[in-house]
Amino acid sequence: MKKWIIGALLLLGILASESAVSQNKQYYITTSDSVKLYVRVAGKGKPCLFIHGGPGSWPKYYYALGGDITEQDMTMIYVDQRGSGRSGGDASTDYSLARVVKDMEEVREYLGYDKWIVMPHSFGGIIATEYAYTHPDRVLATIYVNTTLNLDYAKSNAITQASSILNVPESEFLKPGVSKTQAFGAVWNRLNQENLSYKMMYRDKAMFDKMNAVMDTTLNWHFGSNVWNYPEYEQDFTLKTAAITAPSLIFTGLHDYSVGPEHYKSFQFPEATYRVMDTGHCPYQEQPAKFQKYIRKFLAKLD
Question: Which of 51, 151, 181, 186 sits a CA distance of 20 to 30 A from 68?
Answer without folding.
Answer: 151
